[in-house]
Structure formats: C-alpha cells, structure tokens
Design a protein that fits this description.
Elements: H1 8-21, E1 28-39, E2 45-50, E3 55-60, H2 62-65, E4 77-87, E5 92-102, H3 107-122, E6 139-144, H4 149-161, E7 166-171, H5 179-193, E8 198-203, H6 217-225, E9 230-234, H7 242-246, E10 249-250, H8 254-261, H9 265-299, H10 301-304, H11 306-349, E11 361-363, E12 381-386, E13 389-394
Parallel strand pairs: 3-5, 6-7, 6-8, 8-9, 9-10
Antiparallel strand pairs: 1-2, 1-4, 2-3, 4-5, 11-12, 12-13
Helix pairs in contact: 4-8, 5-6
Length: 407
C-alpha cells in the first residue's frame, strides 16, 4: 500500500494538533526551577523549566506576563499553568505558560518583597526625606473612597477633636485594577490645588489583594513626590503596605490618622489656659519685685532730697576748678621761666651780640655773610653791619693771605 508523503510542515501541524487536542496537556500545572530566563523587549518571556533530571523550553506571551505581579528570575522555583504545544517552525515542543506562581510563597507576597527592596534602594523610604506633620493644620485633605467607612471615621474623629480644622475629601478608587492610578491622580490633584496642609491617605482593612493598590509603584512615587506631608492609614494595625513606608507618617488605622493629623482642641485650650496662668503669675512676680525695688529707690537721698546731692556736687566742682586754676598758673610760670632761660642762651649765642664790642658783620649783595677774604674781588660791593646800623662799601684793592684789605 502506498503511503501519503507528508511535508515537514504537515507533519509538524499534525503533531501540534495531537498535542493540543490532548485534554491532559491543556490546563496543565507543572513545577520546576526557572533557568535561562529572558524578558524580551516585545514583552514576551522565554525560559527553561527544569528539575533534577529533565528540562522543557517555555514561553509566556506578553498578555499573560503582564499579569504576573512579581519579577521572575533564574533559580526561582515556580508553578506554571498552561498547555503543551509544538512550535512548527523548529519542530520543538514547548510549554506555553498562561500563569505563574512562586512555589512555597504567594505571588503578591513575593512581589511586595521585591518592590520594597527596589524602592528602598532608591531612597524612597529614607528618613531624611520625611516631611514634618504640621502641628495645627488649617485644612486636611482625605484621599479615600467617598462611600467607605474610612472617610466617616476620619471625619467623625476630626470634628470631635477640633471643628476649626477644615476637611476636604478627595475621591479615589481604593480597590481594583484602576485603584492605583486613581490614588496617584488624587495625590497629584491635591498638590496642584495646594489648599491642604496635610494629606490623609485612608482605606479600611482587607486582604492582601484588596490592599494591593497601595503596594503599586505608581502610588509610592506619587507619595514621595508630594510637597504636602502624607499620612498613610491603610488597613488595620497589622497591615503594612508600600505606601506606609513611603509616607511621611504611618498611622495604624484611619481613625488613628485623624488623631495624629488633627490637634485636640480641648487639650490645646487647656494648654493655652495653663500657659496664660503661668504668664500671669510671672507678670505679677516681676511686677511685685519691681514695685519693691521702686519703693527702695524712693527712699534714697538722690530721689527724696535731690538738691542736697546737687549742692554737694556743686561744691566739689568748684573745688576742682580752684585746683585746676592753681595747676594752670603753676604750669604757666614754669613754662615762662623755661622760655626766658632759653631766650637768654640764644641771645648770648647770637652773632649780633658781639657787634656791641666794636666788631662789624660783612655781607655780600644778597645779605649773605662773607666768611673769607678769598670770597671777595676788586670792585665788589658789600655791606657792613654794625650794632647801630649798616653802611655800603666797595673793595678797592686786592689782598691775599693774612694781609689786610684796604677799604
């Protein structure tokens, strides 16, 4: 009997149909260790799933990969849900994964740990970036569902603590696939508005899945970017979310957030009254001490008999003036005596003093003293200065040495 000759494509298509029609190989769960994991730029994931003695090539297309909350990595043990089929182009059979769960730990729990580590490394939880919560805010914004119990709890406690603080409710989805984007948008809107001094991000309790929007990266980054201080109040006291670590302050419940954000009006009034009484006591103590001091000053002579002190000062000033005059007179006498003595010395040293003894002083035409006969020449006019006057003269002859010059 002649058999039909098949092409490679026909053979691979036939085998693929056999695999995909097998009910056991559809909706299959397999467990193993990830190896050679690669996340392609297209969004598809390619990897090998292996155990101690075997391995199988696997692929997870973008539509399914985008729904896995954690980030797979080689060496991680996982459970896959999917089907076995044949890749006709290469003739290799492989497993097409449609869901992935970490073995031994829930996917959301693993995703929470991975995201927490990632954001912590980036510094989103760093204490130095935490903004202080204002002591007395004028307005508090509450981001939550308008129909949830969290909003009612916050408003009730805030009104009881201090009705003078304004409250603004900013609606946001707090559960479901669109909740994370809604919360981030509400945070941005509140900052753009700028009318609030503090933000309370609130939600009541729930499962890890219910609270998951508060673990999303988009919410964490919106909280970190907020210029207004954020108090995270998500779930119950035992619940922790990424929002709690990123916020400026974590409250165990929405009610506790209201108590942290809104000051107690009665307590403030009591504190202010206590401060006022303390200031009043201090005032009266200081006033009493000042009054006593004033009474003592009034008894002093300078205030009770002011002219008496003035007269004494006047007598003292007069005595000082007399002493000053005497000191000035003595000093002037000393200076006068010193001046006369120095004048006498100068008089004796004066060249004009000797003229009274019959000497004359020879001066040239410019009234400069002539010190030597060598400085004279025949026909030169000179001046002769005597003690009682001056005459003009002319040199008529020449003489050198010690001989006398005729005039």
């Amino acid at each position: 009997m002649l058999k039909k000759i098949l092409s490679v494509s026909e053979l691979n298509a036939y085998i693929r149909a056999l695999l995909e029609d097998d009910a056991l190989l559809s909706g299959l769960l397999i467990q193993g260790e990830l190896s050679n994991f690669k996340a392609h730029s297209s969004g598809h994931w390619y990897f090998t799933l292996k155990d101690a003695s075997a391995a199988i090539q696997c692929v997870m297309f973008r539509a399914y990969a985008s729904m896995v909350p954690f980030v797979p990595a080689s060496g991680m043990k996982v459970i896959l849900v999917g089907r076995v089929s044949l890749y006709e182009k290469t003739g290799a059979y492989q497993f097409y994964a449609e869901a992935m769960e970490p073995a031994g730990k829930g996917a959301l729990a693993l995703a929470f740990e991975q995201r927490k580590i990632q954001l912590e490394k980036e510094g989103l939880f760093d204490a130095r970036f935490k903004k202080p919560i204002p002591f007395f805010p004028k307005c508090a914004a509450i981001i939550t569902s308008l129909t949830g119990a969290a909003l009612r709890d916050v408003i009730q406690i805030a009104r009881r603590r201090n009705p003078h603080v304004a409250l603004t409710a900013v609606p946001a989805l707090v559960q479901g696939e669109e909740a994370a984007a809604s919360i981030a948008a509400a945070l941005r809107l509140t900052n753009e508005w700028g009318g609030a001094d503090v933000i309370i991000l609130a939600r009541g309790g729930g499962s890890l899945e219910d609270l998951w929007p508060f673990n999303e990266e988009i919410v964490a980054r919106a909280i970190f970017a907020s210029r207004i201080p954020v108090i995270s109040a998500v779930g119950h006291e035992t619940d922790f979310t990424i929002a709690d670590f990123t916020a400026d302050l974590r409250a165990p419940t929405p009610s506790a957030a209201a108590e942290l954000a809104i000051p107690n009006g009665a307590a403030l009034r009591g504190m202010l009254l206590g401060k006022a009484r303390g200031l009043n006591d201090i005032f009266w103590q200081k006033w009493s001490r000042r009054y006593e001091r004033l009474a003592l000053l009034r008894e002093k002579a300078v205030l009770s008999r002011p002219l008496e002190g003035f007269q004494q000062k006047k007598v003292n000033v007069r005595a000082l003036l007399v002493k000053l005059d005497q000191s000035l007179a003595r000093e002037m006498e000393k200076r006068k005596w010193r001046a006369e003595a120095r004048a006498a010395v100068l008089e004796n040293l004066s060249p004009f003093k000797i003229l009274h003894r019959g000497y004359a002083l020879a001066l040239d035409g410019e009234s400069r003293p002539i010190a030597s006969a060598a400085d004279l020449s025949q026909g030169q006019y000179i001046k002769l200065k005597f003690w009682d006057g001056q005459v003009d003269a002319m040199i008529t002859g020449e003489k050198y040495g010690e001989e006398k010059t005729e005039l």
